[in-house]
Each structure stands twice: as structure tokens, then as C-alpha cells.
Amino acid sequence: MEHSIFYKENVPYLRPVETLQIGDTPLWPPLLNDDMLYIAARNHTLYALDKHTHKPLWSYKAQGDLLSAPTLLDDVLYIASSDRTVCALEARTGGVLWYYQAQGALLCAPTIAEGVAYFVAGQTLYALDAGLGDVLWSYDLQERAHVPLTVSNGIIYIAEKSRLYALDAIRRVIIWSYATQDTVRAAPVVVDEMVYLSSQDHTLYALNSETGQKLWSYTTRDAILASPAIAYGMVFVGSNDYTLYALEARFGTLRWQYATNGPLLAPPAFSDETLFVGSFDHSCYALDALTGEKLWSYGTRGPIDTSPSIAEGILYVSSTDTYLYEFASDRRWTFTTGNAIESSPATANGMVYFGSTDHNVYALKGEAGEVQWSIETGEEIFSSPLANSTREVIYIGSNDFTLYALAASTGAILWDFLTAGHIISSPGEWSGMVYVGSADHCVYALDVETGEEIWQYETTGNITSSPCIVDGVLYIGSLDQQVYALNACDGKLIWSYMTGGGVHSSPTVEQGLLYVGSRDYKLYALDTRTGTKRWEFETGNIVDSSPTVANDIVYVGSHDHHLYAFDAPSGKKRWQYRTGGAVASSPRITDGTVYAGSEDGNLYALDIHSGEKRWCYHTGGAIHASVATDEDLVYIGSSDHTLYALQRILLPTHIHLPG
Predict the structure, then answer these.
(1) pLDDT tens-digit profile of 388-403?
(2) What positions does the domain Pyrrolo-quinoline quinone repeat occupy (predicted)?
């Protein structure tokens, strides 16, 4: 998937993630190139920022106001300022490559085409060598141009008052002109041998690019000061009558119109049959490009007079309130299976692996959610996969009594091992062995290469808990109410501890303590050497959630609807957060955030220190699985049959840089 795309179904989930303010002046729309973000403030300065942190990398201060966003081509930035200077800068360093002092007022940054920088200064059209800044030629216009020029297929389109001229750039002769009924205030757009031109006479014109002959026109209720935009066989244009129009590009017939509460002064941006447009009513709108249906909107504190831009998963909106707003969708993609997803996903090498109760194991590409492969087992899958990225093997159990070893790239079965019961337990791996529990009461140790049984240990109850292997000791719970510590090499019992209920929770070991939940409503902390109890905490219901430990804090969920945080050495409660349903999901921690799902259908992201909710995402069903994270994404399965890929960082922040 290209990061520049917002898929239409995700647009309603756009959320503000950052606002940027540089000084107290409005900003032109940004440009991105590699890891750098370029922003021109309208009062003199062009800034280059790190696109991730917004740390300033360099800046260039002109003697006059910058007249537009810069033009970027081949790692060179071109700017123009009100002091009549055109300048070319090296994009990585801000070093000046060349500058040109014009004799008349400039309109905006130059237009670059075929190695030539074109711009109008006063009543003169200039063509400069884009690499060196040397004047190649100039052309005297009859009057002063009012709008930026457009270059297409060797033809320069220049508007002077109410007339558009088509100038052959090689021969430097006018090949045609077309007069509207009032001043042209926006640059023409050339697509598929047609020139689209808006005018203050309320009309959008479509002209033949070779002859200038009018093919059609469409009249709105007020002046059109915005350039049109062409996509999906339609031309879109905003008017001072507060309305965005969508017309058939070939014939000019109206497809739809959408009314805002202010003039529209800039063309929209597009992504996946969605258009984004700013209005003078302070709002940015996302509309279905084919129907005009509103999908999303966001209000800023000032009029929006420029076009939004989309780059690398971010929607940028510049407002005259001096802020640059950045939006990201909290949902990147979804994938629907044939039944509930109780299996927690695993990530490795850019892939996401998980099972579904539709009997299948799936491998998806992490960025796009596209199926790499799937394999059907004989029964439902509750077990979570173990991904060995080095050996490129996926281990996963099924309710068909079988543990599978699958090739990570193809899903081919490398080996399988049949037990005498359902496998809900998720496998663990250590020292050339893979371990798993079964509803046949046994925990098994198998050779990772062949699947051959090395040893088994039988308890007196079903094993749905997953093994934890630390320093040659395997820890696992059983529904016979006990926690077991076994020698991982030979399966011999080291110790066991009897709780007051079945142990579905999987143990976690940290700094000599084992943490595990029980269906007797308690969380236990046991000494890993002896199995003696250090402390316990009683919640309001069973604890099937598997605890997670980070920075001496242990996190666990309970069927009493709460997620808890305890001091790991002492068991003292730090905080608790109430959800709307049982929390059987095991917490996961990444970058200061603890994630846990609830049977209320929400995935919660909480601050690890305070338990304060940072955000939550509602799915269509109960969440029993745990999340997996990979770079900037969080993956979670739901009983609504769907795996969700969500943006990991959604906290709105404000950055103010000195002007």
C-alpha cells in the first residue's frame, strides 16, 4: 500500500495528530521529500523540518514575503518572494544554488518543465535554466499576468486580465487566445488535450488545448477564484457561491454539488475516490468524489484558502489561523474472516499471522492487509501463533488437536503433531524445542525441526494456558487449579502451586517472580525458585488475562471489567481502569501505552503510569485477543470476524517553533 493513500472507508476515522505553528504567521501548504518536511511561512522564511519530529534542520529567510509554497523537483526547491527574487535551494541543506533578481512583481514560485524555470515578473515572461539560473529567453506580455502560469507539452498558458493565451515555448509565438467575460484569477489546468479555465464571470470553461475553441462552459452563482481539479473523469471546482461543483470532464454536465458555508478558493486534493477541500468557513471537508456525500469534516480557527495535501499517511491542512493541521486515520485497514478472531496476531518480517474460528490460519502483508496465504485446519483456532523470524516458521495450534509448523512465506505444512485434545494454548520455543499445552491435560516438548515428541508432562486438568520458558524452566497453568514449574529439557516437575480456581492465564516471569491469574478471582506473584507465594490480589471476578510486566509494574485484566496496574515487587495497586465488559485480553505495552481489549468491543490505549485513557477504538464484537504491534501499527482481532490495523500514535500534540 502507498502511504499517500487514504482508503475511502477509513476517511471517517481521520483524527488530528499534530498542529504546527511557526511564529504567528499563516503557512503555505507543506511539501515532503524523503524524511524532510518543507514549510513556507508567508512572511519571509522557508523551513526544512524532520518530518517525524518536526525538529528544524535548516531555514532560508528571503528579503520579502514568500508568495506561495515552493516548487520541488529533483531535490531542488524553487521559491519566489515579494522582493522580486527567484531562488533555487538545495533541498537537503538549504544552500543557495542560484537566485535571479527580476525587474517586476512576481506571482508565485516558478513552474518547472523540461529543465526550464518559467515565471512572470511584471509584464515579462522569463525562461531560466532550472539548474543554473541563467536566462534562456524572455517574452514581453501585452499586460501584467494575474495568475500563475501553466506549462504542458511545450505550451505555456498565461492569463492576462480576462484573456488566456497559449504560447509556443519553442517558437515563442501565440498560437491562440480565448477571452472570458471577466478577470481570470486562477491558473488554468490542462488534462487530456483540454484546458479548464475559471473566471470571475462565474463560469468554468473547457477549451481545446490545440485550438482554444470552447468545448463547453458551466456557470455558477458567483465568481470562481479557484483553479479546477480533474480526477475520475470529472472536473471539480469551487465557487464564491460557497459550493463545490463536480462536472463531467468531457461534456460539462453537473454530476453533483456540495454547499459549504464559505467561498472555496483552492482546488481539492484526491485519494481513493475521496476529495479533500478547504473552505473559507474554516472547515476542511472530505467528500465521496463520485457522489458528493460528506465523509468527514474538521473545523479550524480560521479560513482555509489553500489546498490540502496528502503524503505518507498524513493529511495536511493549512489555515489562516497560523496553524498547520496534521490528520491520520486511526484505522489503516481491516481484514474480515469467516468467523470470530480469538487468536492474538503475531508479526514478523513485515507480515501479520493469526488464526480464526473459521478454521483458517492467515498471513497478511502488514502494511496493506493483503493475503499472502491462508491454510485451513480441521477445526476452530483459538491458539495464537508463534513466529520464528530467523527460521521463518509459524507454530500454531488448532482445535483439531494438532500443532502445526508452517512455512512463514507460503503456509506449507513443514510438520504437524497430533495430541488427544483441543489446542487452545499458544506455543513457546526454547533451545531447539517448541512447547504447547493441550486439552488432553498434557504439555508437550517437540523438536522444532521435525515435530518429534521429546517429552510430555500430564496434569490433572485441561491445559489452555500458554508456556513461559525462562532459564531452562517451563512455567504453565492448568485448569486443575495449579501452576507448574517443569524442567524444560526433560519435563520433570520442579514445583507446583495450587490456586483456588482453574488457571487459564499464562504465566509471566520477571526478576525472580512469576505472575499469573486464576479463576479464583486472584492475581498471584510466586517465587520462581520455590513456588511460594509472595503476594496476591483479589479482583472482582475471574482472571483469565495473562499479566504483562514493564518497569516494575504488572498489568492484568479481570472479568470484573477492569484493567489493573500493580507494583510488581509488592502487589500494591497503582491504578485500575473500568471498561464496559470483561477484560480477558492480555495487556501489551509499547512506547508508554498499555493496550487491552474488552468484551465491550473496545480496544483501549491507556497511559502506563496513570491509567488515563489516551484513546479507544470500537469494533463490532467482543475482544478476547491481545494486540500485536509493528512499527506504527497496532493489530487486533475481534469476534466481529475482523482483524484491524490501527495507527499506534494518535495523541494530538501542538508544536510551536519560533518564527
Answers:
(1) 999 999 999 999 999 9
(2) 30-104, 123-221, 227-303, 308-379, 443-648
